Amino acid sequence: MIRAKKGMAPGESLRWYGFWLLDWIKGGAVRKYFDQIERADRMGVSPEEVQEKIKRLIEHATRTTTFYKDFPSDTPLEALPLMDKNKYREEYEAHLSSVYKDAGDNRIMYTSGSTGTPFSMIQDRNKINHNTAAGIYLSTIGGYYIGMRWTFIRRWVRQVNKGKLEFLKENMVFIDSAVLDEEAISNILAILKKKRVKYVMGYASSLSAISRYIDEHEMDMSGFRVQTILSTSEALADRSRDRLRAQFGCPVGSWYSNEENGNIGIAADGLQEGYYIDSESYYIELLKLDSDEPAEDGEVGRIVITDLYNYAFPILRYDNGDLAVAHRQDMGDGRYRLFFKEVYGRRSDMIYDSEGRLISPYCITNGMWGVGGINQWRFIQTGIMEYTMELSGDEQVIDTADVLKRLTPYLGQQAKVSIKFVDEIPVLRSGKRKYIENRCPAYAEKKFSV
């Protein structure tokens, strides 16, 4: 039996051991995958084993799906077409495996994506078990063990909501982030303290807003019991991560995941290389921004995912719209561990300075740190040299001249930045607040700006 984390309360340990006992009764599928993922982390993955998984998946796809039926079963992965959300949506039925599509134990995962366009993905039972194992193992890297009291600060839309029994079973505290004004953040912090929450997961925008509130109100954090914080879906700026770590006195990391695939990687204290990627579960290609050639080690590239375990809906060469800088760590005997040094999020969120040079969105998020009076903000590139900063907060306190002074070094002296005050930054269908957007028509035409 895998031991629970030291210091867990009796009720928490009971949930941990109860989960593994139930898995053993059901045949131990999750434990088997947990051990495989742990071994890959400790020793690295074997390229030969990965290629064998890819070959089996391609053979299955050519045999059981309409989309791939005309491809030879021994087609190399690189010879298959690149896919994206729109292509999957348009030819959804053609990608369903005839063997699994009517299975009663399938699961449908929903995502609205950054654009708010609905998208769903079927997962078979084997994939579900594997993703559960990956989530459990990667969580332990971040400091969370099943059974610990936790919360997910998010917008609880219908597709992801849980019943009261599920919250109780998971030892989970309900917190909704539909509103993030001062009163709402004060209530969130009161719940974290009162319920003695140990693990906090949330969108980076929500966590950053909470951190700013703590600083602005000079809160005494001594009564909190938070032991680990992990952001998800959005990249957490370095300044926000550093402040949260100091405020709560605990490790702060970030998930790399999506609804359609599941848990892909994690960045946590102690991982100097960045995001550790679960290469036992996924084969990741990084392709150049302006072509379909492989990106060099250390070069920003497009993330292309092959999901090695979803046979109900074979995901082969899925260009999911994210960018990253990758690095392979040599573990000896040909084995390797894959890391993302940086994850830049959606390509449509990449910003260009007034001279047309690509800049990281982190320049904006880090630059906006510490501006007084702001509850929420959204930065939009509207033209090659035109930008709009939308601000929600106290107009009497916000120093707009300071905001412009902070942004100019990144955007260039020719940049024309307008400040617009709004009541609130709108929430996407997913519950996220998109706080960096590129709406410039000139960049929308580029291959890497979807």
Features:
about 450 residues, alpha/beta, Rossmann fold, GMP Synthetase, Chain A, domain 3, eleven-stranded mixed sheet, four-stranded mixed sheet, about 25% strand
Helix share, percent? 25-40%
- Amino- and carboxy-terminal Cα gap: 47 Å
- SSE-based structural type: alpha/beta
Please provide the count of β strands.
19
The CATH homologous superfamily name of the largest domain equals ANL, N-terminal domain
Please give the order of strands in the largest beta sheet: 4-3-5-6-7-8-9-13-12-11-10
The value of Rg in angstroms is: 22 Å
Shape: globular
Total count of helical runs of at least 4 residues? 13
Number of domains: 2
CATH architecture of the largest domain: 3-Layer(aba) Sandwich
Quaternary class = single chain
Major pleated sheet: 11 strands, mixed
- Mean of residue pLDDT? 87
**Poorly predicted ranges (pLDDT <50, ≥5 residues)?**
113-117
Q: What percent of residues are in strands? A: 15-25%
**CATH level 1 class label of the largest domain:** Alpha Beta
Per CATH, what is the topology of the largest domain?
A: Rossmann fold
Structure description:
The chain is α/β, with parallel strands linked by helices. It has two domains: 10-344, Rossmann fold, CATH 3.40.50; 350-444, GMP Synthetase, Chain A, domain 3 (2-Layer Sandwich), CATH 3.30.300.30. 32% of the residues lie in helices and 25% in strands. The protein is built from 13 helices and 19 strands. It has helices at residues 10-25, 29-43, 47-64, 85-90, 92-95, 125-142, 164-169, 182-194, 204-216, 238-248, 362-367, 400-411, 441-444; strands at 107-111, 119-123, 150-153, 172-173, 199-203, 228-232, 252-258, 262-267, 275-277, 282-287, 300-307, 318-332, 335-346, 351-352, 358-359, 374-381, 386-393, 416-421, 436-438. The strands form four sheets. An eleven-stranded mixed β-sheet has the order 4-3-5-6-7-8-9-13-12-11-10. A four-stranded mixed β-sheet has the order 18-17-16-19. Strand 3, helix 7 and strand 4 form a beta-alpha-beta unit. Helix 2 packs across helix 6 (125-142) and helix 9 crosses helix 10. The longest helix has 18 residues, at 47-64. The protein is globular. The protein starts with 9 loop residues before the first helix and ends in a 6-residue tail after the last helix. Residues 113-117 have low confidence and may be disordered.
